[in-house]
Specification:
CATH architecture of one domain in chain B: 2-Layer Sandwich
Largest sheet of chain B: 3 strands, antiparallel
Largest sheet of chain A: 2 strands, antiparallel
Oligomer: heterodimer
Order of helices and strands of chain A: HHHEEHHHHHHHHH
Strand order of the largest sheet of chain A: 1-2
CATH class of one domain in chain B: Alpha Beta
Low-confidence stretches of chain A: none
Shape of chain A: globular
Order of helices and strands of chain B: HHEHEEHEEHHH
Structural class of chain B: alpha+beta
Radius of gyration of chain A: 22 Å
Strand content of chain A: under 5%
Mean pLDDT of chain A: 85
Shape of chain B: elongated
Strand order of the largest sheet of chain B: 2-3-5
Number of domains of chain A: 1
Number of strands of chain A: 2
Helix content of chain B: 25-40%
Number of helices of chain B: 7
Number of strands of chain B: 5
Mean pLDDT of chain B: 75
Number of helices of chain A: 12
Helix content of chain A: 55-70%
Distance between the termini of chain A: 52 Å
Chain lengths: 368, 239
């Protein structure tokens, strides 16, 4: 690896990391503000214009507060758990391409932390790792409520990861028909969603040429299942049984305070953003969108894909907030029922339908 | 074993499943519409349920039980006669009163004695207003001021100097420099006196009545029956 390539890697990792942190800080503020609007309140309005610096102020406060360690904790696990929550959260976003690759001299800069050829598998692995943090935090706290939260997290994660994985499989299979063979690389999946559906059918060409070639249109059921699963995976309302304040105080983070609590909090909001980003990448075409190359100045055309990506992601993040403001928390058996009796059979059924359609299109009817 | 599984087998109830999905989605969108409508309403300027507190204060109820104040008569005399009935009535035992004989040449109160020491421990006070009811001379009343937080326990004990209004009717504020201090709050007493004034009892007609705001000045006399009747018919319309 030559020096310019090394610096490009450093640059893109720093850019991805910085984007994630800035966006997360804004997300916490945005959630509080949007939730306030939905409840006829004002919301944070003191720190900075429209209270935009509220998260920084809260973070600073938590940083300087005492991190209380209760006497009955399993110290090693107790200290490790917050890091286990934050690190996978950061690593997941490293897989997401958040802008169109561009050239500096004769080196290509991809706006992505790392383009793994097993990107999707890595994401699934990391989102499973994040659950360990919750379970370990719950178990090592040596207290009842966190333990209940941890146990709930175990059951919830297993149920909903299955549905999430099955929905992903459908997309990967569909994506394989869109280009040269199957791929798990997110950059490649995004590439394959560029353009429109115009060449699908000559008869409908005038209409379809304005419909972008996103996976969400043929895979709408997978998208819905995937979205429900990621809401459950990030422990957000209405699936926030893991930290249900009204039942089990704070769930797994009841015994955490100060900077350790802040890390759990940060991880949750990073996960919201990165999971929405993954949904936008898999289903909504990632950074794809009209860039008007040659019409607009080159700089604008280079920035536009990132704006499209953020707009799509924020649409999903807003859905997260909207659901939180609207829906009451599911009961535990309802959660299990939805996961095992509705989402997983639904995802499997959709997988079968999708497979049949794909193979029919590729190989023709079985009697031919 | 095999039989049991076979007996339970049904063709997937597609129609029922679809109805379920559609039903769930319909209910979901119904809920989302409510919150969405409220959000749009809030952004476009419909009424909020919260205020930016120190900058805009909510109007308090007329009978709000806030900080106490010791009143004076219009001629500047103190109303408190040091009888300690308030201290006796207090369920939290937060009032401490010591009376002293008036100097005949230069009396502090019109009675025999006056409240020489008057202390209320605001950390113990439960703001029930029983002291106000117990007072035979309406010397102690309550205002609508409630911002009384202090940084040490001594400051929470209000003494005679703090509670007693000056001869002009102004009540001393514990922290007049404080950014939350609203001196106007001290000029509005709770509505208890008005509510329990002997209005309607013939024996009190034409007698000076108690009024809701503390401070010296001229009290309106208790209206006679015909005055009250005309007032009611004007207000109610149908009499």
């Amino acid at each position: 690896m030559s020096w310019p390539e090394f610096w490009i890697v450093v640059l893109r990792v720093i850019l991805t990391f910085g984007l994630l942190l800035v966006v997360t800080i804004l997300n916490v503020w945005a959630e509080r503000k949007i939730l306030a609007k939905m409840q006829s309140r004002i919301g944070p309005s003191r720190a900075g214009p429209y209270g935009i610096l509220q998260t920084l102020a809260d973070g600073m406060k938590l940083f300087f507060k005492e991190s209380i360690t209760p006497r009955k904790v399993e110290l090693g696990m107790y200290v490790l758990a917050p890091f286990l929550a934050v690190i996978p959260a950061f690593l997941i976003f490293m897989m997401v391409p958040w802008g169109r690759p561009f050239m500096i001299g004769d080196h290509e800069v991809t706006l992505q932390g790392a383009d793994l050829n097993v990107g999707l598998l890595f994401i699934l692995a990391m989102s499973s790792m994040a659950v360990y943090a919750v379970i370990l935090a719950g178990w090592s706290s040596g207290s009842t409520y966190p333990l209940i939260g941890g146990v709930r997290a175990t059951a919830q994660a297993i149920s909903y990861e299955a549905a999430m994985g099955l929905a992903m499989v459908a997309v990967v299979m569909f994506s394989a028909t869109q280009g040269d063979g199957g791929t798990l690389s997110l950059a490649e999946i995004v590439e394959r969603q560029s353009g429109t559906w115009g060449d699908l059918s000559p008869a409908l060409q005038p209409v379809l040429q304005f419909v972008p070639r996103w996976n969400v249109f043929p895979q709408i059921v997978a998208f819905v299942i995937f979205f429900i699963a990621i809401v459950a995976e990030t422990n957000r309302a209405p699936f926030d049984l893991v930290e249900a304040e009204q039942e089990i105080v704070g769930g797994f983070h009841t015994e955490y305070s100060g900077i350790r609590f802040a890390m759990f909090f940060l991880a949750e909001y990073i996960n919201i953003f990165s999971m929405s980003a993954i949904a936008a990448t898999l289903f909504l075409g990632g950074w794809n969108g009209p860039t008007f190359d040659g019409v607009l100045p080159g700089f604008v055309s280079a920035v536009l894909p990132t704006i499209y990506f953020l707009a799509k992601t924020y649409f999903l993040v807003f859905l997260f907030f909207w659901l939180r403001a609207t829906l009451p928390r599911l009961r535990y058996d309802q959660l299990m029922q939805l996961g095992w009796k509705r989402l997983i059979p639904g995802a499997l059924g959709w997988l079968i339908v999708s497979t049949l359609v794909i193979s029919f299109r590729q190989f023709g009817p079985p009697w031919s | 074993m095999v039989d049991r599984f076979d007996a339970g087998y049904q063709f997937p109830p597609i129609r029922a499943t679809l109805e379920l999905v559609v039903g769930v989605l319909r209910e979901l969108f119904k809920g989302l519409r409510v919150t969405g409508r409220i959000m749009i309403g809030t952004i476009t300027g419909s009424e909020l349920v919260t205020t930016r507190y120190p900058q805009e204060m909510r109007e308090k109820p007329q009978r709000f039980h806030g900080r106490h104040v010791l009143n004076r008569y219009p001629d500047g005399m103190e109303k408190c006669i040091g009888c300690e009935l308030c201290a006796g009535a207090c369920p939290a035992k937060c009032i401490y009163v010591r009376g002293q004989d008036n100097d005949p040449a230069n009396p502090t109160s019109p009675g025999e004695r006056f409240g020489f020491v008057y202390e209320i421990n605001m950390l113990r006070c439960i703001f029930c207003g029983l002291c106000v009811e117990a007072c035979p001379t309406e010397a102690i009343t309550m205002t609508s001021l409630f911002e009384m937080s202090t940084t040490n326990r001594e400051d929470a004990i209000y003494t005679r100097e703090t509670l007693l209004m000056d001869p002009v009717g102004k009540v001393p504020h514990m922290f007049p420099e404080d950014e939350l201090a609203d001196l106007g709050e001290l000029d509005t007493a709770d509505g208890w006196l008005k509510a329990t004034s002997p209005s309607g009892v013939a024996a009190y007609e034409g007698v000076e009545m108690w009024r809701g705001t503390p401070g010296p000045g001229n009290w309106d006399p208790e209206p006679t029956q015909d005055v009250r009747d005309s007032r009611t018919s004007e207000e109610d319309g149908d009499g």
